[in-house]
Specification:
Elements: H1 4-25, H2 34-46, H3 50-68, H4 70-90, H5 94-101, H6 105-125, H7 133-140, H8 148-166, H9 169-190
Helix pairs in contact: 1-4, 1-6, 2-3, 2-8, 3-4, 6-9, 7-8, 8-9
Length: about 200
């Protein structure tokens, strides 16, 4: 049963993800990995709302989770919906906040990644998640002989690589800083805890 404490944790984690995305990454067109990275590309190229794209990208993965592993589905759905909502909710404050917090791109890339990583790590530590490519990686790891972390890293590099081709080479380089900072902070927050899963029969 989900407690009030878990919902508060998801809101706090989502707020950190939203701040990192809106105030540090978007002003400089920097990418993150995962579904957020895909949503950022859609925002930079087509001016689509980031949270809306995250929800769209999550639909097939959550259908798979519903069929294959209900525990992951329930642990991820609220995190994905609340974080998506929070990202779009804070987007109108993006320009003013960025002028104060993120005037330097070299500063913004790792700080944005670190805030997203802390927000995600905070949720993972408390058995919640935003879903996304980490959800896909958990499913893929059952069928390919690769570590979940390696699969996530490969997907992240592919996403920012595509973004670098569509945007610029500097976007790719700064985005590498972002996913590195995010990976480090998520690892620190979660220590050695892993996302709970049930064996699929």
């Amino acid at each position: 049963m989900w407690s009030l404490r878990k919902h508060v944790i998801i809101v706090i984690g989502s707020l950190l993800i939203s701040i990192g995305t809106n105030f540090f990454l978007v002003p400089h067109k920097i990418l993150d990995g995962g579904v957020i990275g895909i949503a950022l590309i859609a925002n930079y190229v087509f001016d689509l709302h980031i949270g809306f794209v995250i929800v769209l990208c999550g639909i097939p993965m959550f259908i798979a989770a519903w069929v294959l592993n209900r525990e992951i589905f329930y642990n991820s759905l609220s995190g994905m919906l609340i974080s998506s909502f929070m990202i779009d909710l804070l987007s109108p404050l993006r320009r003013d906040a960025a002028q104060i917090l993120a005037s330097n791109i070299l500063f913004s890339a790792p700080i944005g990644g670190a805030l997203i990583g802390i927000g995600l790590g905070f949720m993972l530590r408390n058995d919640a998640s935003t879903g996304g490519t980490d959800l896909l990686a958990h499913f893929l790891a059952k069928y390919v002989p690769m570590n979940v972390g390696v699969i996530i890293l490969l997907m992240d590099v592919m996403i920012i690589g595509v973004g670098g081709l569509l945007l610029s080479g500097s976007t790719f380089m700064y985005s590498l800083l972002t996913i590195f900072a995010g990976g480090v902070t998520t690892g620190i927050c979660t220590h050695k805890r892993v996302f709970p899963q049930k064996r699929i029969h």
